[in-house]
Design brief:
Uridine Diphospho-n-acetylenolpyruvylglucosamine Reductase, domain 2; 4-stranded antiparallel β-sheet; FAD-bd_PCMH-like_sf; flavoprotein
């Protein structure tokens, strides 16, 4: 887990406007994420989870903890001729599609399963079908 106080947010959102946050934390594991929420000095602060920061615009400083999601991992299982991908929330969508193509999963047949999607802090679930 990497922690920066009074951190610059410019590299973490697509609009690239200079703004700061009280605390910036990069989490690389579920344990890191739990530690952020249990850290005594941050309990009362608002938390904001970011991935790549697309569609995010900071126009004022964020007086809280910005959590950069770096959780990575792809697990594949198969049931009844369908492949189920359990994808960690820090995975990049274009890279995931490329990975699927490289592993012979039909990229044109990948869609998010709305019944299995979780909040950004949780892994994404995708269904791949033939």
């Amino acid at each position: 887990m990497q922690i920066q106080n009074n951190a610059q947010l410019r590299p973490y959102h697509t609009f690239g406007i200079d703004q700061q946050c009280h605390v910036l934390v990069e989490v690389h594991s579920v344990e890191d994420l739990i530690a952020v929420y249990q850290r005594q000095e941050w309990l009362a602060l608002p938390k904001l989870m970011l991935g790549k920061g697309s569609n995010m615009l900071f126009t004022t400083p964020f007086e809280g903890v910005v959590i950069i999601n770096r959780l990575r991992g792809i697990d594949v299982s198969e049931t009844d001729g369908q492949y189920h991908l359990h994808v960690s929330g820090g995975e990049d969508w274009p890279s995931l599609v490329e990975w699927c193509v490289e592993h012979n999963y039909a990229a044109s047949k990948i869609s998010p399963d709305p019944w299995l999607l979780r909040q950004r802090t949780h892994p994404k679930h995708w269904r791949v079908w033939d």
